[in-house]
Design goal:
The complex is a heterodimer of chains A (250) and B (346). Chain A is of the alpha/beta class. Chain A has a domain of 125 residues: 3-Layer(aba) Sandwich (Rossmann fold), CATH 3.40.50. Chain A is 34% helix and 26% strand. Chain B has one domain: ABC transporter involved in vitamin B12 uptake, BtuC (Orthogonal Bundle). Classes of the chains: A alpha/beta (250), B mainly alpha (346).
Chain lengths: 250, 346
């Protein structure tokens, strides 16, 4: 359970990028942040993942303020997949093993339990066969699965993802979204940013619609679709029919 | 035979822990060999038999014994320690700045250490024990300054290197000014600028030993955390790594090592850049293997260059810095040109 209350965030004082945003994400559900470019989706995600300090308001996970967790404890609570990532010269297994970092002792040695978690994460994401391959030799879609495996090895209750489907072809997009759905059914709480409205409407339990740093609407995909706010925010027209929905420019 | 060699090279860096241990063993062998060569050869042309006899009799008045114990042994120790320290410092700085072009020499850490060492010599002549401390202080200040530049201004990698070169040249000018103003205090300043081991004593190396030891231990302790840093800031932070602390400790370790090396070996250039790159080819980028391998190969490389410096024009000695650049420069170019397929950093 993530509770976001009256959160204001900015990079400079007096110039907030995110203003007075409040909503909550129930445990074992998938919430998607949508909105036009520059609306503050990524900023909100980064604030929740403790990558950015809050200027006002508070964020709680499991009832505790996120700032109260130690670095390691927070890393055992929530994982974060940024959109732009460095691709280091490392094997697939090596990268996934880094997911266990918050569990390691001072010697930084992996224990049997860590190895099991790494193996399981690689099996769930289907990257086990590539364990010894160089990350740089993989395609974008394959790499994305490896990063997912790292996040899974981190074994957190909450997973934050920033536009995980960008740069992926349609099949890989669906594969990733299906994987997230499967994780949700295993009890993970997922908060992520998506650009694709159709994906967001199809896969989310809740949608947070944002514009210019403020929350415009928060609800189920059906409610968002019928609210008419999508038209306002994106400058498009939404058509809802009995057998589905589509978007046009005017 | 050529087929075997080619396949060996192609399988580097090794993927398995076994392969990496093999590389470490190989490097240890090379280091031991370099130590033996450094004790065996020098400007005095003693035979191996003479040396062994002197060693067995341990007669304090024997000139062979004296050369071996009071000249070659400290010199070997100094070359080994300086090479290891600068190579490990180079690898650390490359990791912290995430910049393959960085090294203690390039970003001015060595010059900073040298400037403060010279300052200590001129302000408090005779206080030899002050030298490693001053040197370390100079290295730390310069490293933190360049790091702050990198963070504050969000400099690109190239700009950072240029800034480092600027810092380095200011400090080098400072060193030169001091040698002009106080020529009497700064004996052998040319030797200091180029770096070398001709005047080194056991006590000057011994004075830096504590710094070296703490620096090496800290570096090895940080290795796994530096690996996490390679994933980028956001990922490292979300894995629970304390970014600022890790970077500061790595800079501290690099300053301890580079400062200690400069305090008795002068401004040796190139080791800190060349050796980490050689080791990345041999061992890959995992700091848990990279740093120990830099320690071994750095020592071996400087030892071998120093042996050549003593032997090439014996009984005249050639500055080891020149040998290192003559040997290392072309080798580095070959490394760069062959790097196309396996880039260290993108």
């Amino acid at each position: 359970m993530i509770e976001i209350s009256n959160v204001t965030v900015g990079y400079l004082p007096g110039n907030p990028i995110l203003q007075d945003v409040s909503f909550s994400v129930p445990q074992g559900s998938m919430t998607t942040l949508i909105g036009p470019n520059g609306c503050g989706k990524t900023t909100l995600l980064r604030a929740a993942a403790r990558q950015l300090p809050l200027q006002a308001g508070e964020i709680r996970m499991d009832g505790r303020l996120i700032g109260e967790y130690s670095r390691k404890a927070f890393a055992r609570m929530a994982s974060f997949l940024p959109q732009v990532r460095v691709v280091p010269a490392i094997s697939v297994r090596g990268l996934v093993e880094h997911g266990r970092f918050p569990y390691l002792g001072l010697s930084r040695q992996l224990r049997a339990a860590d190895r099991d978690a790494v193996r399981e994460a690689m099996e769930i994401t289907g990257v086990y066969d590539w364990a010894d391959r160089d990350l740089r030799a993989l395609s974008g879609g394959e790499r994305q699965r490896v990063y997912m495996a790292m996040a899974l090895a981190q074994d957190t209750q909450v997973i934050f993802l920033d536009e995980p489907t960008t740069y992926l072809d349609l099949r890989h997009q669906f594969e990733l979204l299906e994987m997230l759905q499967m994780l949700k059914h295993r009890g993970k709480t997922i908060l992520f940013v998506l650009h694709d409205l159709a994906h967001a409407l199809r896969y989310s339990d809740r949608i947070v619609l944002m514009q210019a740093g403020r929350l415009v609407e928060h609800g189920t995909p059906q409610a968002i679709l019928r609210s008419g706010k999508l038209d306002e925010v994106f400058g498009i027209r939404t058509h809802v029919a009995a057998d589905g929905y589509w978007f046009t420019l005017h | 035979m050529p087929i075997l060699r080619k396949s060996c090279i192609r399988s580097l860096p090794p993927k398995s822990a076994k392969g990496k241990v093999a590389v470490l063993i190989g490097l240890t062998g090379l280091l031991l060999l370099s130590v033996l060569l450094s004790l065996r050869f020098g400007s005095q042309n003693y035979t191996a038999l003479q040396l062994l006899q002197a060693l067995r009799s341990a007669e304090p008045t024997d000139p062979v014994w004296r050369i071996l114990i009071h000249v070659r042994f400290p010199r070997t120790l100094a070359a080994l320690a300086a090479g290891s320290a600068l190579a490990v410092a180079g690898a650390l700085i490359q990791s912290v700045l995430n910049n393959a072009m960085a090294s203690p020499n390039v970003i001015g850490v060595n010059a900073g250490a040298g400037f403060f060492a010279m300052l200590a010599v001129t302000l408090a002549p005779g206080a030899g024990g002050l030298l490693p401390a001053a040197s370390f202080f100079g290295a730390l200040c310069t490293a933190l300054f360049v790091y702050a530049l990198a963070m504050k201004a969000g400099l690109s990698r190239t700009t950072l290197i240029l800034a480092g070169i600027a810092v380095s040249s200011v400090l080098t000018a400072g060193v030169n000014t001091l040698t002009l103003l106080y020529p009497d205090d700064v004996i052998g300043a040319t030797g200091f600028m180029l770096g070398g081991f001709s005047g080194v004593t056991l006590s000057s190396v011994g004075g830096a030993a504590a710094y070296l030891l703490v620096g090496f231990l800290l570096a090895l302790f940080l290795a796994a955390d530096l690996n996490v840093l390679q994933l980028g800031e956001e990922s490292a932070q979300s894995l629970g790594l304390h970014l600022a602390r890790t970077r500061f400790l790595a800079i501290l370790a690099a300053a301890l090592l580079a400062g200690a090396a400069v305090s008795f070996a002068g401004l040796l250039s190139f080791v800190g850049l060349l050796v980490p790159h050689m080791v990345r080819r041999l061992m890959g980028n995992d700091n848990r293997w990279l740093l120990p391998a830099c320690l071994l190969l750095g020592g071996a490389f400087v030892l071998l260059c120093d042996v050549l410096a003593r032997v090439l024009f014996a009984p005249f000695e050639f500055p080891v810095g020149i040998v290192m650049s003559l040997l290392g420069g072309p080798f580095f170019l070959v490394l760069l040109l062959r790097r196309k397929r396996s880039r260290v950093y993108d």
